[in-house]
Write a structure and sequence with these properties.
The complex is a heterodimer of chains A (431) and B (471).
Chain A: E1 2-4, E2 14-20, E3 27-28, E4 33-38, E5 43-47, E6 52-57, E7 64-66, E8 70-76, H1 87-99, H2 132-140, H3 159-173, H4 187-190, H5 206-221, E9 224-232, H6 234-249, H7 256-270, E10 277-279, E11 284-286, E12 293-295, E13 297-299, E14 302-304, E15 307-308, H8 316-331, E16 345-349, E17 368-372, E18 376-382, E19 385-399, H9 405-420
Parallel strand pairs in A: 12-16, 16-17
Antiparallel strand pairs in A: 1-8, 2-4, 2-7, 3-6, 4-5, 6-8, 9-19, 10-11, 12-15, 13-14, 17-19, 18-19
Helix pairs in contact in A: 7-8, 7-9
Chain B: E1 4-11, H1 15-26, E2 31-35, H2 42-47, H3 49-67, H4 82-106, E3 110-113, E4 115-120, E5 123-128, E6 131-142, E7 146-148, E8 161-162, H5 164-167, E9 176-180, H6 184-196, E10 199-203, H7 215-228, E11 231-233, E12 236-244, E13 247-254, E14 257-263, E15 265-268, E16 272-274, E17 307-309, H8 320-334, E18 348-350, E19 355-360, H9 363-368, E20 374-379, H10 384-388, E21 395-400, E22 407-414, H11 417-429, H12 434-439, H13 449-458
Parallel strand pairs in B: 1-2, 1-6, 2-3, 6-17, 8-15, 9-10, 9-15, 10-11
Antiparallel strand pairs in B: 4-5, 5-6, 7-16, 12-13, 13-14, 18-19, 19-22, 20-21, 21-22
Helix pairs in contact in B: 1-8, 3-4, 3-6
Classes of the chains: A alpha+beta (431), B alpha/beta (471).
């Protein structure tokens, strides 16, 4: 089995091999780290997708590798050798699945997905036709040219074919099929904007490209509904004011997001569907007994979503501390790949910047996301009287394949109830 | 004495060794090149490719002059000054040897003259004129080359029994010369000595000379040699040799009948063996294969991770240009680059008259491996250029994969085949189809057109031949 670099996390298109933790001939266990990879964000380890013996290591320390690139070959013990057509996507998928093991049980690749099941065969036993220059590049990138379909006469492979193949691998390595912008010529390319004035072109960073691709995938594959509502946070803010000094003494920052995490953890326990994923190949809903919430963080390089673990089991102090720590780490790009994986739900809080209701995009394979706007003082009728209250705009975007409107509204109402009726005893520090 | 410390030591300054040393130096490495011969360049330059080609050129001039008679040009009997011919040949070797030494100096490659012996996986001892020197290295490249095989039964200790090395020294022009072995070395040197005036008899144990080469490409060589040589005897084995006065008495077996003949000189060209004796390989982890050549992987790395091996020392096809390429691969691998000697087309050239050259898959190989191919041929009789050269004894052929029309191999027999084959190498390396070759305009009138016309003939549309294929 060929192990290729899986799509590790949002925004990680590749990295540098820091250490290789296995040697050729070594017996390894499934999920055992095989190498450490330094990405633009962090150093993380790549787990072995299966148990077996390392037959070949295709990369070297210090080498730049990209998603889909061949890392090592494993001869699986007690397993049938993978079908020839399977390994190109299979390995990448498996590796990713292992990395995502905490999120979901191993998900088989969706049947009928457009995959490149191509394998070069020549009756004469000749290698795939490709000029030496292309073969050199393929060797450098550890690309197996027998997998690359040549577009030229006689099936000859040119550089464009290799590029297309790598792109295909990257798409396959991600969970969702991707009728993305990458597969359609972007409209912007065709238009000469300089006709109307000076322009400037800037290459999209790998992070930007990943965000763009994942968002387009999500947008075009998930039938979603946006459920708007508001929460009155006047009381909550009073509580925060009252207790924040005590939290500060402990070195913790009591923020609105920590309250939201606390409330969401409990609400997701009560509404496990909102915490689930869908396996569209087996037509099953995968319920997760854990609750790991991603928090969208705005960094200089773009959007990164680190994950807070077992949110439902933690108190407000723990959540405040962890949230602060991981947000800082993310802004400094020190967050590890593992800390970006396994989310079951996401909060996107734009409140610190401003804005009211907005419709966030679901982070597949999650099924729902909460978009939080800025709390604003508004006149509100309470018991027939006008009162000035601080109102938090909320939007729950959810995957209608998994959640129905009634489920979603019930979930959102529970979240709002949790915010509005936040129990002061949950704020106590010596609890 | 303080050992020399170097990043890379290359043992042997032949076309593999100096190519590796120079490439490593170009890549910024500290390189030491060890060579026992005072002149750099290895077998190829000193006792192989270069001197044989110089002599073959002389032979071609003699032959050309002779054959001009029917074109109305007569030079009379040529006068041979062997000393002058040797000096001229030697001057070429000297010039090239100096050139390599100069290139080494310019690159800062330290050259140590002497015989190298591995002390361990990181130390090479060199026996130089000024005593022992020790070289501590990170990586070593073994590029020691090969030497002609001399079966002990033929090794009479008599100078009249020569290998190619002595034959290239041109000691004299024997009246009767026996060449044992009809491979490329025997046939090339036979061509030289026949042109110089010897009665050349070639003995070959197998049913054909140039075994392994496609028979249709060998045919023009056989025909020409049958005219130029006294005789070519196939299916013939030498049983015994003995000194008989100023001659060598050779006992051979023809059709199970023994026969004795006397020759002034005998050239033994029955193969080559690697120069691996007394290298101290037992002090390293280097392992030899069952044929006695060094075993290495596609990165040219031996079983000793510090030691790489290239060229003839590894066996396979013993060709200078293969060694050079392997040298570059070895250096790239040492530098951690992704490099491998895989799927590389190595052209082969036999400098007989006419020459034979081929690359990629041969028709013979395709048959042996049961690979279905289509062969497109263009006989030189239809080439205007060949006619003007008075050399229509040639053939250009393409070995083509039927479904894809991809060119898998090219074979050429004819004058200048060695220079023409490069286009074939490019075609095979590039994965070109017959259509690509047919559509590329070739200058007229040239011999290179035969490649284009062979490709056209695959489609039944070659201008200068007619085929009913498409009608």
């Amino acid at each position: 089995m060929d192990v290729k670099l899986p799509q590790l996390a949002e925004g990680v298109e590749g990295g540098t091999v820091v250490t290789i933790l296995v040697t050729e001939g070594q017996e390894i266990k499934k999920d055992q780290p095989i190498m450490e990879l330094e990405t633009q964000k962090a150093v993380g380890s790549i787990p072995a997708p299966s148990t077996g013996i390392v037959t070949k290591i295709h990369v070297k320390q210090g080498m730049e590798v990209s998603v889909g690139q061949l890392l090592i070959s494993i001869e699986s013990s007690g397993m049938q050798p993978p079908r020839a057509a399977e390994s190109a996507q299979g390995a990448a998928h498996n590796a990713r699945a292992a990395a995502e093991a905490r999120t979901a049980p191993q998900q088989p690749v969706a049947a009928g997905r457009a995959t490149e099941d191509y394998h070069f065969e020549s009756k004469s036993g000749a290698p795939p036709p490709a000029p030496p220059s292309v073969r050199k590049i393929a060797r450098e990138l550890a690309i197996d040219l027998t997998r690359v379909k040549g577009s030229e006469a006689g099936g000859r492979i040119n550089l464009t074919d290799v590029r297309a193949y790598i792109e295909g691998l990257q798409q396959m390595a991600s969970h969702r099929p991707a009728p993305t912008s990458a597969s359609q010529p972007a409209l912007a390319e065709a238009i000469d904007f300089s006709k109307w004035g000076p322009i400037r072109r800037e290459k999209m960073s790998p992070l930007r490209r990943t965000v763009s691709r994942r968002m387009a995938e999500s947008w075009s594959t998930i039938p979603k509904i946006n459920q708007f509502d508001n929460a009155d946070i006047t009381a909550l803010l009073d509580l925060r004011k009252k207790h924040s000094a005590a939290y500060k003494k402990k070195g913790a920052h009591l923020t609105l997001t920590s309250f939201l995490l606390f409330v969401l953890g409990r609400a997701l326990k009560k509404h496990p569907r909102a915490n689930s994923s869908m396996d569209d190949s087996s037509l099953e809903i995968i319920y997760k007994d854990y609750c790991h919430i991603g928090v969208a963080v705005d960094t200089e390089g773009g959007l990164i979503v680190p994950i807070l673990r077992n949110v439902d089991q933690k108190n407000l102090l723990q959540l405040s501390e962890e949230l602060h720590a991981i947000t800082e780490k993310t802004r400094q790009r020190k967050v590890s790949i593992e800390e970006l994986q396994g989310g079951t739900f996401t909060i996107s809080n734009q409140g610190s910047i401003g804005g009211s209701h907005f419709t966030p995009i679901i982070y597949a394979p999650q099924v729902a996301i909460l978009g939080v706007g800025q709390g604003q003082a508004q006149p509100v009728a309470i018991d027939g009287k006008i009162a000035i209250r601080t109102i938090l705009p909320l939007c729950l975007s959810y995957d209608h394949r998994v959640l129905d409107g009634a489920d979603a509204v019930r979930f959102l109402k529970d979240v709002i109830a949790g915010i509005e009726g936040f129990d002061e005893s949950d704020l106590k520090l010596n609890k | 004495m303080e050992p020399i410390s170097t990043e890379i030591v290359v043992l042997g300054a032949g076309p593999g060794g100096y190519a590796a040393a120079f490439y490593a130096a170009d890549k910024g490495k500290k390189v030491t090149l060890v060579e026992q011969n005072p002149r750099l360049g290895g077998i190829c330059l000193n006792v192989g490719c270069i001197p044989s080609k110089a002599l073959l050129h002389a032979a071609a001039v003699l032959r050309e002059a002779k054959q001009s008679v029917h074109r109305g040009i007569e030079f009379g009997q040529p006068k041979l000054d062997l000393d002058k011919l040797r000096v001229w040949k030697e001057s070429i070797l000297e010039k090239l040897g100096q050139g390599i030494a100069g290139l080494a100096k310019q690159r800062g490659v330290q050259v140590v003259h002497g015989r190298g012996h591995f002390e361990d996986s990181q130390t090479l001892r060199v026996e130089t004129g000024e005593g022992q020197k020790f070289i501590r290295y990170d990586k070593a490249v073994i590029a020691v080359g090969s030497k002609p095989a001399m079966p002990s039964a033929f090794d009479l200790g008599n100078q009249r029994v020569m290998t190619s090395t002595e034959a290239l020294e041109l000691p004299d022009i024997p009246h009767d010369l026996l060449i044992v072995g009809g491979g490329y070395i025997g046939m090339e040197l036979g061509t030289v000595y026949a042109a110089l005036g010897s009665n050349v008899v070639v003995l070959e144990a197998l049913p054909s000379i140039l075994t392994g080469v496609d028979p249709d490409l060998v045919r023009p060589v056989t025909r020409a040699a049958q005219k130029a040589f006294k005789e070519i005897r196939v299916n013939t084995k030498v049983q015994k040799m003995a000194t008989s006065g100023k001659q060598i008495k050779v006992t051979m077996e023809i059709d199970k009948q023994p026969r004795e003949e006397l020759y002034d000189r005998v050239l033994v060209s029955v193969g080559r063996v690697p120069n691996l004796a007394d290298l101290g390989l037992e002090n390293t982890k280097v392992i030899k294969d069952d044929k006695g050549f060094i075993q290495c992987n596609a990165q040219q790395q031996t079983d000793d991770p510090n030691i790489y091996a290239i060229g003839d020392a590894n066996g396979g096809i013993l060709l200078a240009h293969r060694a050079s390429k392997e040298g570059r691969v070895a250096v790239e691998a040492m530098l951690g680059e992704q490099s491998a000697f895989e799927n590389i087309v190595i052209p082969a050239v036999v400098y007989t008259d006419p020459e034979v050259a081929w690359c990629g898959l041969t028709e013979t190989e395709a048959k042996a491996k049961n690979i279905e191919v289509k062969v497109a041929k263009f006989p030189w009789g239809a080439s205007g250029r060949a006619l003007t050269l008075d050399r229509t004894d040639g053939l250009t052929k393409l070995v083509i994969e039927p479904e894809t029309e991809r060119i898998l191999g090219v074979g050429i027999a004819g004058v200048g085949a060695g220079d023409l084959i490069s286009e074939g190498v490019l075609a095979v390396e590039m994965g070109a189809t017959a259509r690509d070759l047919a559509e590329s305009v070739h200058p007229h009138p040239t011999l290179s057109e035969t490649l284009m016309e062979a490709a056209e003939s695959f489609y039944g549309t070659a201008t200068h031949t007619f085929s009913r294929r498409n009608t």
